[in-house]
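Hi V.,

Quick status before I head out on leave. The structure for the redesign project is tokenized and pasted below; the design run finished overnight.
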């Protein structure tokens, strides 16, 4: 089994994880519900995300599948998620060239049950889904090569472009008010005042930094409301590890993790891509002196993004993208801090101060972004002239 697990841990989803007992976790019955009856000979938990719980299973005969338990504390109505995913992946698949040689790898393929549904509920009432493993590609937590940055920008830019004609009003809002940053500020203030687990004093500096930037919370929402920014189909979790990169060509293969595809602003996707991918450190780096915006990485991401979006995003919207970097970094800092004050009820944490460390890291990155805002705008301007 160790040899098989070594194979499973190579290629795509090559992330830290641990071997699990598939029988104890009920994988045979879950997979059978999706029409997969071959024995599971190895399985590994992939600690890749902050929300759902994800496993990679190797079946007898060599098929590899992803089994994922959807976090119902975050996604109250999993059926809505899968309804969005079903229609969005169908649209993306329809945009592929007819003769695309690797079409099966370009869009995630979710496994349907015999009745056509995409969710199986386990005996404890938890929802699971299953999708095909993408061979020969890797989801990196950080770019290994400079071209990975540009390819990530291209992938998320192409994602927006290919969904530009998708009927936005048919999408479910899978997390209500996900980027309603003013509303999130109100929730943050309530958490500060409640101090339900006695952590307010330990976060006094971070609380003050969030309070001082309250006007930033409204800047994108107000422009969406008055129509000066258009509403678009957005991914809303544009981290570099949500793009699979081909192991041979280093080109982007497909965009993954589609749970938060909803109506929003293109600025949200661009901002989160830069926040996560162009930082000089991880989003939970405890030493804030290591954290800054790497302008070289920013330029690589942006070059790829502009290459795919120019033509359906006008110059005004492109020049507004750096505002997304500020707002999304501020919003996530606020969300981490809120969860810390609330007792770690939303994000998965690996220790009692994990959310506070995350908030500090994002606030330090925000400070550096503020100092480089003009440079970000100038780079975009120079590349769309």
């Amino acid at each position: 089994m160790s040899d098989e697990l070594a194979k499973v841990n190579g290629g795509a989803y090559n992330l830290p994880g641990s071997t699990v007992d598939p029988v104890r976790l009920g994988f045979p019955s879950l997979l059978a519900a999706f029409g997969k009856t071959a024995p599971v000979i190895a399985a590994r938990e992939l600690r890749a995300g902050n929300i759902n719980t994800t496993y990679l299973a190797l079946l007898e005969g060599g098929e590899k599948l992803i089994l994922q338990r959807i976090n119902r504390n975050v996604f109250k109505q999993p059926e809505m998620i899968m309804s969005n995913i079903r229609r969005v992946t169908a649209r993306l698949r329809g945009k592929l060239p007819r003769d695309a040689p690797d079409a099966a790898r370009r869009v995630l393929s979710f496994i349907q049950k015999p009745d056509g549904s995409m969710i199986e509920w386990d005996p404890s009432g938890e929802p699971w889904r299953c999708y095909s493993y993408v061979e020969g590609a890797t989801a990196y937590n950080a770019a290994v090569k400079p071209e990975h940055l540009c390819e990530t920008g291209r992938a998320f830019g192409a994602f927006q472009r290919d969904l530009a004609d998708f009927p936005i009003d048919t999408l479910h809002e899978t997390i209500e008010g996900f980027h309603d940053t003013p509303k999130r500020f109100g929730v943050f203030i309530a958490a500060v005042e409640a101090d339900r687990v006695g952590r307010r004093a330990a976060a006094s500096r971070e609380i003050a930094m969030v309070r001082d930037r309250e006007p930033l919370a409204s800047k994108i929402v107000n422009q969406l409301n008055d129509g000066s920014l258009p509403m678009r189909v957005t991914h809303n979790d544009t981290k570099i590890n949500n793009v699979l990169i081909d192991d041979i060509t280093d080109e982007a293969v497909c965009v993954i993790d589609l749970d938060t595809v909803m109506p929003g602003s293109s600025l949200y996707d661009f901002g989160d891509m830069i926040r996560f991918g162009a930082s000089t450190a991880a989003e939970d780096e405890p030493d804030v002196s290591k954290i800054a915006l790497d302008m070289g990485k920013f330029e690589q991401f942006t070059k790829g993004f502009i290459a795919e979006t120019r033509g359906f995003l006008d110059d005004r919207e492109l020049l507004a993208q750096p505002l997304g970097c500020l707002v999304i970094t501020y919003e996530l800092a606020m969300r981490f801090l809120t969860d810390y004050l609330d007792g770690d009820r939303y994000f998965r944490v690996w220790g009692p101060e994990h959310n506070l460390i995350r908030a500090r890291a994002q606030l330090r990155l925000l400070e550096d972004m503020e100092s480089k805002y003009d440079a970000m705008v100038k780079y975009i301007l120079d590349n769309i002239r």
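Above is the designed sequence. The longest helix spans residues 321-342.

G. will cover questions while I'm gone.

Best,
W.
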